[in-house]
Every structure is written in C-alpha cells, then in structure tokens.
C-alpha cells in the first residue's frame, strides 16, 4: 500500500525535469487550493495509485506546503485511529508501517 508512495514523494520533491529544483510549474489552475485540500487529494490519489490526480494535486501548492499538509493529515489520521482502537499513536503508526512493536 505504501510502497510506491515514498518513490512518488522522492520524485515530487526531487529536481524537476527541464528546470532547477524549486522552479515554478509550467501551468497552474486559476482556482486557488489550500494546502490541506491538496494534501487530502494527493494522499487519497496515492492510496488509489491515481497518477493523474497525484500530479494534479502536487501542482496546487508548493512542495513544502504539500509536505506540511501530508504530515498534518498523517498525524490526524494516526490520532483518530489510535482513539478508535484504544491504542497509542506510536503503536498505530508502527502497525500501519508494518514495524514490530516498540
């Protein structure tokens, strides 16, 4: 489930073809998207392996803003799952990543 997500993040935050790292994207939508909307679409597209939506959401905000939004979404998701399961956030995060209990 998470195997391709790290590769996509490396590709997203690495140098862009045809320009320097951090260069503005060639085309952006005219509608402004906030970083949380971009993160929600990006993460759900990654989960569904929808490359078109991944690229679309990645273009809505800066890579730094997207990273912040994805981090915030991950934190909120782990907290929600931990509460639902009656477990610690650390335990839930390790389980989701397939890591042994600490």
Residue stretches low in confidence (pLDDT < 50, at least 5 long) are 15-23
Helix content: 55-70%
Structural class: mainly alpha
Order of helices and strands: HHHHH
Supply the number of helical segments.
5
Average pLDDT level: 82
Distance between the termini: 22 Å
Largest sheet: none
Question: How much of the sequence is in beta strands?
Answer: under 5%
- Please give the radius of gyration in angstroms: 15 Å
Per the principal axes of the C-alpha atoms, what is the gross shape? elongated
- Would you count the extended β strands for me? 0
Description of the molecule:
- The chain is built from five helices and no strands.
- It is mainly alpha-helical.
How would you describe this structure in keywords?
102 residues, 0% strand, mainly alpha, elongated, 62% helix
Topology:
Elements: H1 3-13, H2 35-47, H3 51-58, H4 63-85, H5 89-96
Helix pairs in contact: 2-3, 2-4, 4-5
Give a brief rundown of this model:
With 102 residues, this protein is mainly α. The protein has helices at residues 3-13, 35-47, 51-58, 63-85, 89-96.
